[in-house]
Structures are given as C-alpha cells and as structure tokens.
Design brief:
By secondary structure, the chain is α/β, with parallel strands linked by helices. It is built from six helices and four strands, in the order βαβααβααβα. Strands 2-1-3-4 form a four-stranded parallel beta sheet, sandwiched between helices. Strand 1, helix 1 and strand 2 form a beta-alpha-beta unit. The radius of gyration is 14 Å and the shape is globular. The mean pLDDT is 97. The structure holds 4-nitrophenyl phosphate (4NP). The site of 4-nitrophenyl phosphate has 10 residues, from loops.
C-alpha cells in the first residue's frame, strides 16, 4: 500500500504522521510506502520543524531525515490513500484532482478514528503547546490505520 499524508507546510503534522506510521510499519514488517507533502511549497527541502522532531524523538520516532516537498497532481496516480490533516488541505488537494478515482483516494486523516466526522488535526505551527496533543492524536490514528489495513489484524 502506498500512503501519502498531506498538510499545509509539510513540516509539522504530516511529517509526524509519516514518521510514526513508517516506524509502526517497519516494526511489523509491512511493505508499505509512506510519504508526506504540503499543499504549500514554502518549506520545500527543509527538515521538519524542530518542535516536531523533538516530540517524535521523545517517543522514539526519528523524523529528522524527512524533507518537505509540495503536493503535486502526479501524487494522485501513485498513491493508494491520501490522508489530509484538515478541511483546507482537503479543499486544496481535491481542487487538483481530475477524476473520481483521484477524489476517492482523499480523506481527512482523523476519519480513520471518527468516520465521516471530518475533524481536522489542529495546526500546531503557532502554538508550541499543541505539539504534544497533536502527536498523541496522530499516533492514535496511525494505530488505527495499522489495525484496519494490515493483513495481520
Ligand atoms: P504544517 O504546519 O502544515 O502542519 O506543516 C505549518 C507549517 C508552516 C506553516 C503553516 C503550517 N507556515 O505558514 O509556514
């Protein structure tokens, strides 16, 4: 399975999801390809925000090697699932889709925990105190992805 996580800058929320799910998939020997991207390109080429690196490190997950890149419409063809962090990301990604099959790949990330509720992951960029709760929320949703999509569940 090929999975793409998308947020705005690709330096806070989606690299956390990317790194946490990579870590869980590796622990279980799952042959998944996982990546993340931002709808915006301002941080392309950068490592994750140091607060995201720090909170992940606290839980034994290394995200420091990830590099930001911008989402492109080519991602629709390559990935099986595109999980976006909030409603704005959803709009921005859907706006670049060209087919119904493209659109079907896209969903709000937290809908894996709360189907069809369309709850967003809050952007922690302006608030240091949000990195911890965002980490916890992302980890819960990643566990649920493992539960729902790994063959050993
Ligand atoms: P992210 O957070 O979308 O979770 O990576 C942000 C990072 C950077 C900016 C906004 C959100 N920014 O405006 O530069």
């Amino acid at each position: 399975m090929r999975i793409l996580f998308v947020c705005l800058g690709n330096i806070c929320r989606s690299p956390l999801a990317d790194g946490i799910l990579r870590h869980m998939a590796a622990e279980r020997g799952l042959d998944w390809e996982i990546d993340s991207a931002g709808t915006g390109g301002w941080h392309a080429g950068e490592a994750p925000d140091k607060r995201a690196i720090a909170v992940a490190k606290k839980y034994g997950v290394d995200v420091s090697m990830l590099r930001a890149r911008q989402f492109t419409r080519n991602d629709f063809a390559y990935y099986d699932k595109i999980w976006v962090m909030d409603a704005q990301n959803y709009q921005d990604v859907i706006a670049q889709s060209t087919t119904a099959a493209d659109k079907e790949k896209v969903d709000l990330f937290l809908n894996v925990l709360h189907p069809q509720r369309n709850v967003g992951v809050q952007d922690p960029w302006y608030d240091d105190a949000l990195f911890e709760p965002v980490y916890q929320q992302v980890e819960e949703a990643c566990k649920e992805i493992i539960r729902q999509f790994s063959e050993s569940n």
